[in-house]
Amino acid sequence: MIKGFKEGFLWGGAIAACQAEGGFGEGGRGWAVSDIAFYSKDIDRQDLAKHRNIRSETIEKAMADTGTKNYPKRRGIDFYHRYAEDIALCGEMGFKVFRFSMAWSRIFPTGEELTPNEEALLFYDKVLDEIEKHNMQPLVTISHFEMPLNLATKYNGWADHRLVEMFCRFANVLFDRYGKRVKYWISFNEINAGRFSTFKSTGVIVDKSQDYLQDRYQAVHHQFVAAAQITKDLHAKHPQALMGCMIARFTSYPGTCAPEDVIQMMKDEWYDNYFFTDVQLRGEYPRYMERYFDENNIKITWRDGEKELLKANPADYLAFSYYMSCVSSAKKETAEHTEGNLRLSIKNPYLEASAWGWQIDPEGLRYTLNTFHERYGVPMFIVENGLGAEDKINAKGEIEDDYRIDYLRQHIAQAKEAVLDGVDLIGYTTWSSIDIVSSGTSEMSKRYGFIYVDIDDNGNGSTKRIKKKSFAWYKAVIESNGEEL
Fold it and tell me: What residues are paired with 436 via a beta bridge?
């Protein structure tokens, strides 16, 4: 009888190079697509299209400004210099796994080089040293929204098939250098972001595309091919290693029990979620997507051997981020909307929401895990789950983030329910282990970590790290293997 999380369950937290590392212009790092993400205190959170669908003029303006004030992802939280301290704090919490990414733009500054930047590889050697020192396993995301900017401006990103070869070269350098030290890999972070946040995920630029919708899906196709190829390469070099696929899960409910709303929910689940996991776990394009392409005049270009490659090299496990659920409606234009991860959603009147409008739905996590389990029957890894909030330091110099503890407690409890239902869940890494720059708005005000970083939206502050109340709480969760919540 399964009574809880399995022995050896991988508890931990996550960060991304483009939001934490900093070190802009240091160590040979080249320009990355994340360096174009600007901060504006006046940004309309209901309209983030200007941050998601990038034009050449935006890139040119950003590159003319070589500072970090207006482009916070260039500075991050200075993990590049403070990685040992930050990893040690995660080790103090008892992390079993530490998820991070190795920046493509640091190892191959333009993406076109034939040999990697050795200084960058030495940096990641040292990061792995610290992770191992604190008895954690590394979980490495190979591509996490920080591809070399040159590949976007010169090739229009992943719309060009040549990126497959360049990405595979990058990935194989990682396998050769770190393959004996890393068991768990993820090919692309939230690969379905190509549908919602095209530039930072695929590097496709609006005005470089004659047909933007066509190029978005061709770019995702090339990422599917690259993911299958590096899965094949990893297994050949390190049979014990596992390659995961990852999406941002947008679990949807019908707005009403009207049949047209139920059909819309089915379509939203297909197009937002299952297309990406069906291809990477079942190894072929589903018929519903072929119909979508036909109806939208999208013609995917296939090369010889790609169908066989996808079929023969599915991902080993399914990783996903889960922050909220969504509502589907056939009349979505007239419905009230709210913000969410990567895209807007119809507001659910039965759920509370964060200060950023993200709807909080712990039970939706149990439902999500079970629906994935029923569809694929593969091991799963929750690699992002957390609450963004404006944490405040009180008069005692403490951060009492009970709201974060409550959010995580409820979600972990529902993950446990899914395990009791029979789901094969191998790990859980919160987003994030430490405060980092926001992926969507490039602000510091929206904080997710167990560790407060004294930096404000404009980059001012001491950079001091302060443990929040949730730090001790999560330590107890890990020590009890999820029994003490």
Answer: none
Element housing 449 (H / E): none
What's the token pair of residue 200?
A: 């930072």
- In this prediction the pTM is 0.95
- Give the 3-state DSSP-derived string for 55-68, with helices as H, strands as E and coil as C: CHHHHHHHHHCCCC
Tell me how far apart the alpha carbons of residues 304 and 45 are, in angstroms, rounded to a whole number. 43
C-beta separation of 101 from 140 below 8 A: yes
* Residue of 132, 122, 142 whose CA lies nearest to 98: 132
pLDDT tens figures, 18-68: 999 999 999 999 999 999 998 866 655 555 555 568 999 999 999 999 999
Show the domains of the chain with their CATH numbers: 10-479 (3.20.20.80)
Residue 260 annotated in active site: no
R_g (Cα) of the chain, nearest Å: 21
Interacting residues of 179 by C-beta distance below 8 A, sequence separation 6+? 234, 237, 238, 241
What integer best gives the mean pLDDT of the chain? 94
Hey, is 153 helix, strand or coil? Answer: helix
* Distance, CA of 324 to CA of 364 (rounded, Å): 8
165 is annotated as an active-site residue = no
Of the candidates 21, 190, 306, 339, the residue annotated as catalytic is: 190
Among 408, 380, 409, 472, smallest CA distance to 10 is for: 380
- Residue type at 296 in one-letter notation: N
Query: Which H or E run contains 184?
Result: strand 184-188
144 neighbors 189 (Cβ within 8 angstroms): yes
Which residues have C-beta within 8 Å of that of residue 47, sequence separation ≥ 6? Answer: none
Alpha helix ranges (H) inside 156-284 = 162-178, 193-196, 198-202, 212-237, 259-269, 275-282
Question: Which tens digit of pLDDT belongs to each residue from 71-88?
Answer: 999 999 999 999 999 999
C-alpha–C-alpha distance, residues 307 and 468, integer Å: 49
pLDDT tens for 282-317 read 999 999 999 999 999 999 999 999 999 999 999 999
**Hey, how many other C-beta atoms are within 10 angstroms of the C-beta on 411?**
25
Q: Do residues 467 and 50 make contact, with C-beta atoms less than 8 angstroms apart?
A: no
184 phi and psi angles, rounded to 5 deg: -105, 125
Angle between helix axes 469-479 and 79-93 (nearest 10 degrees) is 50
Residue 207 neighbours by CB distance under 10 Å: 12
